[in-house]
Amino acid sequence: MTRSQEIAAKVPACMKTITTTDALAAFCKEAAKRPYVTVDTEFLRERTYYSKLCLVQLAYQDEHGNDAVLVDPLVDGLSLAPLYDLFRDHGCVKVFHAARQDLEIFFVDEGVIPEPLFDTQIAAMVCGFGEQVGYETLVRKIAKSDLDKSSRFTDWSRRPLTDAQKTYAVADVTHLRDIYEYLSDRLAQSGRHKWVTEELGVLQDPATYEADPDNAWQRVKTRTNSARFLGIVQELARFREAYAQHRNVPRSRVFKDDALVELASTKPQSEQDLGRSRLLLREARKGDIAAGILKAVKDGLALPNDALPRPDKGRAKLQVNPAIADMLRVLLKAKSEGEGVAQKLIATSADLDALAAGERDLIALRGWRKEVFGNDALALCDGKVGLRVDGQKVVTVAV
What we know:
Elements: H1 3-10, E1 16-18, H2 21-31, E2 36-44, E3 52-62, E4 65-71, H3 81-88, E5 93-96, H4 100-110, E6 117-119, H5 120-126, H6 135-141, H7 163-190, H8 193-203, H9 227-247, H10 251-254, H11 257-266, H12 271-274, H13 287-302, H14 313-316, H15 322-339, H16 343-346, H17 349-356, H18 367-381, E7 385-390, E8 393-398
Parallel strand pairs: 1-4, 2-5, 5-6
Antiparallel strand pairs: 2-3, 3-4, 7-8
Helix pairs in contact: 2-3, 5-7, 9-11, 9-13, 15-17, 15-18
């Protein structure tokens, strides 16, 4: 048997490619009768601001065996409206793995966020599979199978799809059924479904997917807190974000962050000044981008003082107690291992430093995190408890 025949033989017989709205509606009608449907996408984003949806994979369990389909959104005339209706159906859980980018695609296209929603990456972290665990790892550990990764970086916009691509794509939702059922059972046994529900709040918040040009400057890392400098950064970032969205090109194709910071420092006044930039792309030194840059710098310089962005000076002045920070790290490790939860899901290193410096408005001190770690962390900071080695474990003791 040739390699191509081996690949074709692995394509599930029940799998089909949906190319019409009617066929999609029929599948979604059946899926809505099931307790859950697994969902994944293939897309391209290297050359665009917004993701280009190239394929949607769907699967559910039925009484006659497994059923999975590939939906081709690139076919003329196919509407995803039946899929969006399924996303709005509260009787069927929509299961994703690492859903952030998938959900952004659907939100940008239709303004819809699937509900109820389940993310197996989040659930796996709650169940002790480590930090940001990959799908391949869960397939191997839970579904006891291996994935063919050869099609991972192929061009999903090209047609026709190969058998290897179809096999790879359908595996992303067929194995996901076993993973979902396993993790859902684990959560039910541990009573931690509410933990996952809390974590899903960010994914279900429309603000997660709304890239407002007015706030784009907050993503730019700088080494100075000068309000005037940040004002120019704000205007440059606003122009870049709006330009990238309007032209549907990546931000980096307009100009990169290091070039933005350089421009805010040098404050160019003319195209001749732009020509002296070390970091600005050649295409950005003339035309619409150059004009936008010069206007943004001018607008930043003209901002009145009361309109300038203000850095968080309070956080910058926090004095971290290194001894407390070290003890908090030991406590976090002990709690993480004891509860079987990924450390970074509970608290980040920055959270621990802020806590050791006296800050209390932290995610690590809310919800289930407070029960698992926050209460003891606060007691440790307040000198009410200490840490003691008990065999192979670290435990808290009253002081």
